[in-house]
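Journal club prep — side note

Before the paper discussion, L.F. wants everyone to see what a predicted structure for a comparable chain looks like in C-alpha cell form. Sequence:
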Amino acid sequence: MYVIGGGPGGLAVAAALRARGVRAVVLEKSDAVGASWRAHYDRLRLHTTRRLSALPGLRMPRSFGRWVARADVVRYLETYAEKHELELVTGVEVHRIERAGGDWILHATGGRRLTGRAVVVATGYNHTPHLPEWPGRSTYEGEFCHARAYRAPGPYEGKDVLVVGAGNTGAEIAADLADGGAARVRLAVRTVPHIVRRTTLGWPAQRSGILVRRLPAALVDRLGALLARFATPDLTAHGLPRPEKGLATRQREGAIPVQDVGLIDAVRAGKVEIVAAVEAFEHGEVVLADGSRIAPDAVIAATGYRRALEPLLGHLDVLDGGGLPVTHGARSPREAPGLYFTGFTNPISGMFRELALDAERIARRIARSAPKPSR
C-alpha cells in the first residue's frame, strides 16, 4: 500500500502499519521528510506540548523543551523515519488517483503507474498558499509576499510592514517583526479571532481543548467566554474587541483560536497596530475596509492555505464543497473503499496528537483487511 506525503501524518501512518506487519511505501514529492516544517518561519514552535505531540513509537526528547521549535520538529521527523526504517521514496509526486477494480492506481512523476490495495492521503492541511483576489494586487509594485516566504524579521528591520490576516501565523509574524526591529507593524484584521493564552497558571490550552472537544458547542462557547475574562485582557481599545461568536462555534467554522506568543503584549504596548481588513491595492497604496489608505514598505499576506486535493482526486466525489475529504481517519468514503485521509482537520486538541491517534486507527483498519500470508 502507499502513503502520499512524508510529513508527520504520513510518517505516523507508515510506522503504525509497519508495526503491524503491513508494508507501506511513503511517496514524498520533495527531497526530504517534513517539507512544510522546513519551510516555516524560524520563530515557530509547536503550540502543543512536547508530551502530547509525539507520534506512535517515539517520544520527543526532553531536550526539546515544553514547546518544540520548528528546527527540532524537523530533526524529530528525520529521526522518526530512520528509527522505524520507513520505506520512503522522495522526489515523487502523485498527480492523480484512480480506482481499478479492487486496486488503486497512482499516476506519479516520470510516468509511474503504482498499484496498491489501499492508499492514505497525507499531503497536509497547509499545502498550497492562498491569496485572496484583491483588486489591483497583480499590478502592485510594492514589496509583497505570502507568509510561506517569511523566515525572520531581519530583512524588515527599519521598515513599515503590514501583516494581513490575524490567524496564528499572522499574529506570530506580527509579534516577531515588532520584536525584530521593524519600524512599524500593522496587522489587518477582517474577523476578530479568539486569543487564548498558551498556558494559564501552568495549564496548557491544549489540555483544555482535549477536555472540551466532544462537549456541545454552546457549552464550550460559554466556558471559553468565562476563561477569556479571567485569562485574556480586553483589547477593545486597541481594535481587538471580544469576538461575537463563541470559541467552539468559530472552530467548527474552521477558525481555531490564536495562541498568544507575544501578540497581546505587542498590541498593548503599541508595537503592533490593528487596522481594518485589506480591500484592494491601488496606485502603490493598500486600501482598507474602513476607506483609509496606507503605504507600507512591505506587505506579508498571512492568508492561509488550500488543501489543493482537486487535481489528485476531485473526480472521485470524495471531497466536500470546501475541498476537504468527506471522511478522515479510519473511515473510507463509501464510494472509495481503501482510501484514507489524515491531517485534514484543524483540531483544538492538537494536530500532532490527532495525527498520532488517526495513524493507529488507520493502521488497525488496514491490517484487519490486509490479505493473510499463505502458509
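L.F.'s comment for the group: DSSP finds ten helices and 24 strands in the chain. Keep this in mind when we get to the figures.
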